[in-house]
Each structure stands twice: as C-alpha cells, then as structure tokens.
Amino acid sequence: MKEPARLIRACAGQPVDRLPVWLMRQAGRYLPEYRKLRQGHDFLAMCERPELAVEVTLQPLRRFDLDAAIIFADILLLVRALGADLAYEEGAGPRISGLPAPQEISFPSAARVTEALSFVAETVRRVRAELATDKAVIGFAGAPFTVLSYLLEGGPSTDFAQTKALMNQDADTFSRLLSGLAEMTVAYLALQVRAGADVVQLFDSWVGALAPSDFSAFVAPVLTALISRLKALGVPVIYFAPQTAGYLDQVAATGPDVVSVDWRVSLAEVRRQGIRICQGNLDPAVLRDGPRSRIDHEVRRILAEWGGRTGLIFNLGHGVDRRTPVHHINWLIDAVHRGPR
Ligand code: 1CP
Questions:
Q1: Average of pLDDT values for 274-283?
Q2: Is the C-beta atom of 188 inside 6 A of ligand 1?
Q3: Distance, CA 201 to ligand 1 centroid (Å)?
C-alpha cells in the first residue's frame, strides 16, 4: 500500500518529512496562464468543462512544489442545484437571482444535486488520475452560513443585512435553510470523494460576521452534524473559519480534523485554544508585497509560533491576492521547506 500524501498525514497529526504547503486560491488570476485561458471563456464555462477545469487546477502544480491541488470550481455552483440563476459579473463578483422568498425555498434531492454537479466529479476524477499520489486532491464546498449569505444577499455583502434580518426575525426559516444547505453539501462532497478527492475543505469565509452566541445558537449545531457526516465519508475535513479568533474554541468543537485560521490570530493562541491540527496563516498581503526577507521572516515566525513539527499545514490566512507576483510563491515555498532555522 502506498503511503498517504504528506498533506493527508498532517491532517491526522502524523509526522511528515517536511511541512505540507498549498495556497487557497492557488489557481486563478495572479497566474498569466490562467488569465490567458480565461480570455476565451467565461468563468462558469471554465468550471463546467472538465478539460478546462483540469487544466486550471493543475497550472499551479506545474510551476510550484505544492502538496495539493484544489479543484477549480466555486462555492456558489451549489446554488444552481437549487434552481437559482448564477452569473459572475466582471469586477462585481457573483450575482444570484431567481429564488423565491426564503420561506418558500425548497431543497433538491441528493440525486438532483449529484446530477447538477456531475461535471465537478469528472474534473476530480481526471485530476486524481493525472496527479502523482504524493499530491493530495482537495474537494471543497462553501459552509452553510457562507452560502446562505450569498443566497439572501444576492451577491457579495459587507454587513450581511438580509442574512441577519432573517436570523433575527425568522429564526425557524434561517435554521431550516442552513440545514437544507448542509444536506446538499453532504451530497455534493460525497460526489467529490467518490470521484477521488482525498480531503475536503469547507469554506466559511463570512461566518466571522456573527457574534459568538449566534455562532453557537444557529451555526454550530448544523455544522457539527455536517462535519460528522463528512468524516463518515472516510476523508479528513478542513474547516476554514476566518475572523473567529474570539470563539476558536467553539469552532474547534464542531469537530473538523483541521481548523484553518486567518492571520488575525497567532498560532500560539490557536494552540492555547486546544487546536492540535491547524492550517494557516500567512497574511496574503505579505506574499503579495514581499520583499523576500519579509516573506522569510514571517514564515519563520509562524513556524515558531506553532512550535512543533506535526499538525501544521502551511497556507495563507485567505486566498492569494491577484496582484501577487508569481516568483513570490517560489520564495514562500522555499521558506516553508527550509523550516524554522
Ligand atoms: O476569473 C474570474 O473572474 C473568476 C474568479 C474566481 C475564481 C478563480 C471566482 C469567482 N471563483 C474562483 C475559484 C474558486 N473559488 C476556488 C478554486 C480555485 C482555488 O482555490 O485555487 C475556490 C476554492 C473558491 C472559493 C470561493 N468562492 C470562496 C471561499 C474562499 C474565499 O476566498 O473566501 C468564496 C467566498 C467564493 C465566492 C466568489 N467566487 C468568485 C468571487 C470573485 C467570489 C468572492 C466574491 C465576494 O467577494 O463575495
């Protein structure tokens, strides 16, 4: 039997010969070869056509010594299985329309989710077949709160006014929608795991907008149940929960194998909160800006704050900034491989 990939060993807290490293949003606009391909196709078409999605997924791995490929897709693809219209507008980000009032939203069966997103499974299958076994394939989905916020706001938001209004004024509907999305997420990630994903990550990019008490009352119960069902698929679960430094203990208590944190908290504090396996947490601005000495310094600081050889997956605290010079990523990976010295 082959030894599991470094990243998968790290997710289990097992010793590794060197720290695993990958970057959120490692496929995308900072890469000239991505921009070139993107000129001829819109973003959704790139996700839907496996030959294009596979190519974009593998682009960063051709350039850099990364430990994982993350499937080229988007957290919002799921909403199309709800019958919503999804469009990505140049500069403005995603737009969701065509949904009934929150109280009227009904959820599709697992079979319908699988059918609507079968192209993602095809991409996973092809990526897994093309990639060496020492590289992990990461499947992903949005976490229920973050996806619900896009549904209710219709696109990006800064204050989550519609989302909080529903939570405050109609808690039953709010909880029903979170649970419905969680159910769809199980079907979607099960599809990716069956197709060969070695690990899954839930992106909860906006959950930090909630008070600790609301995280605990509304999100934690749904998330805990979801994570336990994902673990039953037989792969590790990474939960990305930025801006939750004020309630990391509650985040950890939802049960993921790995908690992925942003740069607003030190890894020493993450450890103090009892988190033993963690992903993070360089500020993407440091990677973007450099210079090399600053990147080296920040990597060494992060490794020292974690203070151990196991249980860390090196990553950014959020996605790669599109203004990042490509060679900065080589500098970063070198620094991670050199280690704490
Ligand atoms: O070329 C383009 O115009 C498309 C830009 C783009 C890309 C490359 C979008 C639109 N999505 C993606 C791919 C993507 N999205 C991936 C796979 C690639 C990789 O990681 O290497 C992943 C994991 C995501 C996840 C995602 N989409 C998140 C969670 C992570 C995060 O950054 O917080 C979120 C919030 C989205 C929504 C979304 N999709 C696209 C944009 C521009 C946004 C953000 C909009 C906003 O600000 O609310």
A1: 97
A2: no
A3: 14
